[in-house]
Amino acid sequence: MKQAVELEESTGAAGVRFPLWLQAGFWVCFAIAVAVVVRRAVELLSSGDSGAPAQMAALDAWFRSRAALTWTHILCALAFVVLLPFVWRKRARMLERAFFLLGCVTGLTAYAMSANAVGGWVERSAVLFYDTAFLASLAMAYRWMRRRELALQRRWMIRAVAILLGIATTRPVMGVFFATARVSHLTPQQFFGIAFWIGFSINAIVIELWLRTRAAERMDA
After folding, report:
1. Could you give the C-alpha distances from 207 to 93, 95, 151, 164, in angstroms and in order?
2. How far from 109 is each of 43, 76, 83, 197, CA to CA, in Å?
3. With the CA atoms of 165, 169, 170 and 171 taken in that order, what torsion angle do they form, in degrees rounded to the nearest 10?
4. pLDDT tens digits for 15-68?
5. How far apart are CA 189 and CA 155, in angstroms?
């Protein structure tokens, strides 16, 4: 019994055993995602005179003009991200249902926000592609949860989480574009879409490659 408890504590009740590099990547994305939501919330509550650079100020004004939709999206996304460590560590059906519901609202509001994407059709195409992949992965995870196929549920939840945290990976990419704007002369309208494709693709490719490794296959054993 003691050994069983120790195994559960080391792998989580969901039985997921992640390598250290993947755990590090998750917590970095987690921290960035929370910081992004906090910053956006502060900007939404401010008067709009933050003294930020012109490009950043214009971007903040864009989100402020869609405050209700932005609030719904960022708060549901924040709750979804905050629940992640608990979902992995403790299998509670009510917790998982809340997790899936928050994910659905986050995905659906992302569709709505992309209707007037800052980066135009390039950003919109990235959101439509990866948001659809996120919702599809979430739906598959829910399906396998209902059928009590825990190994398949874990895999699809991992895919969904990786895709959603791609929004955090886009931030350092955007930071590079903002830092080099004086040289490249690119505006947010021009590089936002590129940053979205790069950020989401990094997460999706990395997690898919890991899921196909022998180490990840042992997770299902």
Report:
1. 25, 24, 16, 12
2. 19, 9, 19, 19
3. 110
4. 567 889 999 999 999 999 999 899 888 888 876 665 555 656 667 777 777 788
5. 35
d(Cα 134, Cα 159) in Å, to the nearest integer?
A: 8
Contact 95, 168 (CB under 8 A): no
Q: CA 212 to CA 208: how far, in whole Å? A: 6
In eight-state DSSP terms, residue 48 is: S
DSSP-derived 3-state class of residue 171: helix
Alpha helix positions (H), 65-187: 67-89, 93-114, 120-146, 150-164, 166-179, 181-184
Per the CB < 8 A criterion, the answer to whether 208 and 76 are in contact is: no
Would you say the pTM of this structure is higher than 0.85? no
Q: At what angle do helices 150-164 and 67-89 cross, to 10 degrees?
A: 140
Q: Over the range 91-111, which residues count as b (16 or more CB within 10 Å of their CB) and which as e?
A: eeeeebeebbebbbbbbebbe
Q: Which two tokens stand for residue 205?
A: 């490719």
Q: Residue 90: what pLDDT?
A: 58
* Token couple for 97: 């249902």
User: Would you say the C-alpha torsion 157, 158, 162, 163 has a positive or negative sign?
Assistant: negative
